[in-house]
Design goal:
Structural class of chain A: mainly beta
Shape of chain B: globular
Order of helices and strands of chain A: EEEEEEEEEEE
Largest interface: A-B, 18 and 23 residues
Largest sheet of chain B: 7 strands, mixed
Radius of gyration of chain A: 13 Å
Oligomer: heterodimer
Distance between the termini of chain A: 37 Å
Number of strands of chain B: 11
Strand content of chain B: over 45%
Number of helices of chain B: 0
Number of helices of chain A: 0
Strand content of chain A: over 45%
Distance between the termini of chain B: 37 Å
Shape of chain A: globular
Structural class of chain B: mainly beta
Chain lengths: ~110, ~120
């Protein structure tokens, strides 16, 4: 089983749509979780950390379910500029990041 | 935020040659630098962990004699791809974790290097 698994996508949605990404992780001892976005041929950029209580940053909401080892990201009122690949990321025991394959989102006018 | 400067951003080299990629931490000291590689449509995979003043730790399947890592100072880590082959063509990126307050840390990435071996 892969350490971090994500919806393969791609997701093609119209502007204004709500879109949800899901992710599961295999190591139950993992403590820190993140969503990154990666634009084509660029470095990943931190979108938000994910906390047990769930957290929201504007149009973005992240949820963590430790019992199910499941992480989600919800994007409301999607914009053209949200088009990117969204990476589910878990912090490894050595301080490294363990990345999912990413889910590509295309927001169309 | 902290800045990690990586160069070159893009390099095309002939098969059999060596390529050096540099990552500098511009406004902080990085005792540890992580090197990742990303093949097309694949996830970023950790190649090695570079520690200042000591030998790098390589992930399983990564040849240490082919991917030479040097972390001679707290602000510079280098990855040299020796005797590059077309299958080494990939996106290479470095990352350092920076303490942002209390126990919280954040990963900062270099801009990445797209290597094409022809």
């Amino acid at each position: 089983r892969k350490e971090v698994e994500q919806d393969p996508g791609p997701f093609n949605v119209p502007e204004g749509a709500t879109v949800a990404f899901n992710c599961t992780y295999s190591n139950s001892a993992s403590q820190s979780f993140f969503w990154y976005r990666q634009d084509c041929r660029k470095e990943p950029k931190l979108l938000m950390s994910v906390y047990s209580s769930g957290n929201e940053d504007g149009r973005f909401t992240a949820q963590l379910n430790r019992a199910s080892q499941y992480i989600s990201l919800l994007i409301r009122d999607s914009k053209l500029s949200d088009s990117a690949t969204y990476l589910c990321v878990v912090l490894g025991s050595q301080g490294n990041l363990i990345f999912g394959k990413g889910t590509k989102l295309s927001v169309k006018p | 935020g902290a800045v990690v400067s990586q160069h070159p951003s893009r390099v095309i080299c002939k098969s059999g040659t060596s390529v050096k990629i540099e990552c500098r931490s511009l406004d902080f000291q990085a005792t540890t630098m992580f090197w990742y590689r990303q093949f097309p449509k694949q996830s970023l995979m950790l190649m090695a962990t570079s520690n200042e003043g000591s030998k790098a730790t390589y992930e399983q399947g990564v040849e240490k004699d082919k991917f030479l890592i040097n972390h001679a100072s707290l602000t510079l880590s280098t990855l040299t791809v020796t005797s590059a082959h077309p299958e080494d063509s990939s996106f290479y990126i470095c990352s350092a974790r920076v303490r942002t307050g209390g126990w919280a840390t954040e990963a900062f990435f270099g801009q990445g290097t797209r290597l094409t071996v022809v």
